[in-house]
Design brief:
Blueprint (H helix, E strand, L loop, with lengths): L8 H17 L5 H8 L4 H5 L2 E2 L7 E2 L13 H32 L12 H10 L9 H14 L16 H9 L7 H11 L8 H31 L5 E5 L9 E6 L3 H11 L2 H9 L5 E6 H11 L3 E3 L4 H6 L5 E4 L8 H6 L4 E4 L10 E2 L7 H15 L15 E5 L3 H8 L14 H9 L4 E5 L11 H12 L2 E6 L1 H9 L12 H10 L4 E5 L4 H15 L8 E5 L5 H13 L3 E3 L9 H15 L3 E3 L3 H19 L2
Parallel strand pairs: 4-5, 4-7, 5-6, 7-8, 8-9, 11-12, 11-14, 12-13, 14-15, 15-16
Antiparallel strand pairs: 1-2, 3-10
Helix pairs in contact: 4-6, 4-8, 4-9, 4-22, 5-6, 5-9, 8-9, 9-21, 9-22, 10-15, 18-24
This protein binds Broken Fe4S4 cluster (MSK).
Length: 630
């Protein structure tokens, strides 16, 4: 048998170079070129010291001008910018969650969307004191959805899902006055606090940043994840493939990209209809191939094994293959560059959401009511575009790797129950995992998440860190574009256990799992919150004392800051490989990278050198083990 090898970054970069050559032939632009065109970044922007909140400015802070015209100092300006950044991310994730609530509200026995996991729905209903006995499942779904929608604007109280956290964590949130109230209120409050003439005290601004982040992680994102599972199924392990080689030369290739599974689920369903496959054959294709990019890819890979073509910085590559009939997008992380790029090829760039309108696209408005009809229209459009391919421009790199994905909280618990016989638990608990950590077979866990960023060599930080942590017996749970980085390289293959230390390799063998576990998209970091909350309850260890940390080595978006804030506020130290725009204020930076420990028992750690970042994660985990006496 051939020895298992990872796909190297050099191999991926060589293939990208070939695709960029095709791009040059047709006059296409690329993110690589645009990053060069930008030159070095504005120092004021990068350090967060430019204030554009009113029209007396923009004011920029320098040694000669230490205050803006209103008198705000650098700490107030950096803090306000940081809070606005967080609010952007929290609003975005939570609005995704809101769309999912609306879709759940419109589920019906004979409609476009149905309840696929009634047990999960009933469990949530019970948590929220919604009666379930002798009720139609769709009545329950509608009441749960409506109650969820109220979480966005309720006038009193805090988020319902906070009760899932251990009591100690809830006490910390109460003590620190960061318990999130209605989701929209936290975002509005952030915008109000940062208006000209409101807050300029760094502590108050950072505190609201945590609260706003928590409204995302334990509010909007958690509802997005849970209700998606209710409608589309709770992910369970399944096999798939990853990297550009999943595109098929003799098939119609439809790429789904964005975040909301309501669109991609329907595209997958309609692409499998016999009449659509017949149509594809009638235009000379062997069939229809769906592949994903970014978090939409994570959603459909986790539930259907749909292959993953790439992550955030691969999105232009799928069009550059010349073999993409349609790239269908919904919201978030979509390059506006896809419009002009698709015009250089035969590719249809199809936008579907009023929230993400882009020039040079075909707009087909997609919503819960017209989902079936429009999914059919989109699939048909892609199929009919197949004969327009310019054959001389087609080049699909051969690289692809096997991956096993679908590790929701429920599937992790179920799978790890098989590891230690003495800890098999019928009800499913995290005790087998805790036992592995307690005994030192596994030293700890890292939740690695987040994007790509041209400031970091594409996927380098993700992959190098993963290899280093696995070799040190640290298990990885992944989501977002970090997950696709791993899958493209081969680290989600079960054979990747050969890169682990002896302890973790043994666990992977016994449980038959890959050493990095795919937990889903960026809203699914809420699954990780449920995992650590239950580990804390099952072990008696406080979350902020467990040898578990967060890491976002190539992050770029506002959503990532909102995530970072709720992960830290939940008690997990979080390691960043890209500096947040806070360097200009020693007070804000000092709070984020140290002071927060006094509030929530965790903080950020920033290190741009990937090797040193790995060392500091390992040191952090070992220090926590020592403190626990394990
Ligand atoms: S898609 S937010 S680039 S993880 Fe969720 Fe990837 Fe980051 Fe977007």
């Amino acid at each position: 048998m051939e020895e298992f090898m990872l796909t190297t970054l050099e191999e991926m970069e060589a293939e990208t170079a070939k695709l960029l050559e095709t791009g040059q032939k047709v006059g296409a632009d690329s993110w690589q070129q645009r990053a060069k065109n930008q030159g070095s970044h504005c120092k004021f922007g990068e350090e967060g010291t430019c204030c554009r909140i009113c029209t007396m400015g923009p004011c920029r802070i320098t040694p000669k001008a230490p205050r803006g015209i209103c008198g705000c100092d650098v700490h107030g300006i950096v803090g306000r910018n940081f809070l606005r950044f967080t609010a952007g991310g929290a609003a975005t994730h939570s609005d995704h969650g809101r769309e999912i609530c609306h879709t759940l509200y419109l589920t019906s026995e004979d409609g476009n969307y149905k309840v696929k996991d009634p047990e999960k729905l009933k469990k949530i209903a019970a948590e929220w004191d919604i009666p379930t006995e002798n009720r139609d499942i769709y009545d329950i779904a509608h009441e749960v959805a409506e109650t969820g929608l109220m979480e966005y604007g309720k006038p009193f109280g805090t988020q319902r899902f906070l009760k899932r956290a251990p009591e100690k964590t809830q006490e910390i949130w109460k003590r620190e006055n960061i318990e999130p109230r209605a989701i929209d209120r936290e975002v509005s409050c952030a915008m109000h606090m940062t208006h000209m003439g409101c807050s300029s005290e760094p502590e108050a601004l950072v505190r609201q940043s945590l609260r706003c982040g928590l409204s995302d992680g334990w509010g909007g994102s958690m509802m997005g994840t849970e209700f998606s599972d209710v409608m589309f199924g709770t992910p369970m392990p399944q096999d798939t493939e990853a990297n550009l080689g999943v595109m098929e030369e003799d098939m119609v290739n439809i790429i789904v990209h964005g975040h909301d599974p309501s669109l991609s689920e329907m595209i997958v369903e309609y692409s499998e209809k016999p009449e659509m496959i017949a149509l594809a054959k009638s235009v000379g294709a062997k069939g229809i191939n769906i592949a994903g990019v970014c978090c939409t890819s994570n959603e459909v890979a986790m539930r259907h094994g749909i292959p993953m073509a790439g992550n955030f910085l691969s999105q232009e590559n799928v069009v550059l293959t010349g073999a993409c009939e349609a790239i269908v997008v919904d919201v978030q992380c979509i390059f506006p560059a896809l419009g002009p790029l698709s015009k250089c090829f035969h590719t249809k760039f199809i936008t579907t959401s009023e929230i993400a309108r882009m020039p040079d696209s075909d707009f087909i408005h997609f919503n819960s009511e017209n989902a079936g009809e429009n999914a059919e229209k989109i699939v048909r459009m892609a199929v009919e575009n197949f004969p327009n391919r310019k054959k001389d421009l087609v080049y699909i790199p051969k690289m692809k790797q096997k991956a096993t994905v679908g590790y929701s909280y429920e599937s992790i618990v179920k799978t790890l129950d098989t590891v230690t016989n003495s800890f098999v638990d019928e009800t499913g608990s995290t005790r087998p995992l805790i036992e592995c950590i307690n005994s030192g077979v596994i030293r700890g866990a890292v939740a690695m998440v987040g994007c790509n960023n041209p400031k970091v060599r594409h996927d380098y930080a993700h992959i190098e860190l993963m290899k280093k942590l696995l070799a040190n017996d640290i298990v990885l749970v992944l989501s977002g574009c970090s997950a696709q980085a791993a899958a493209k390289a081969g680290l989600m293959s079960k054979e990747a256990k050969k890169f682990c230390g002896d302890g973790l390799r043994r666990v992977c063998e016994l449980a038959d799992i890959p050493p990095v576990l795919h937990m889903g998209s960026c809203v699914d970091i809420s699954r990780m919150m449920v995992l650590v909350a239950n580990m804390s309850k099952d072990s008696g260890w406080d979350i902020n004392k467990m040898p578990v940390v967060g890491c976002a080595p190539e992050w770029m978006s506002e959503k990532a800051v909102s995530i970072g804030n709720y992960v830290v506020a939940t008690g997990l130290d979080t390691y960043l490989g890209v500096y947040p725009q806070t360097k200009g204020s020693s007070k804000v930076d000092g709070l984020l990278q140290g002071g927060l420990k006094d509030w929530v028992g965790a903080c950020y750690h920033v290190e741009l050198d990937v090797d040193k970042l790995g060392d500091s994660i390992i040191e952090g985990i070992e220090a926590k083990r020592t403190a626990l006496g394990i």
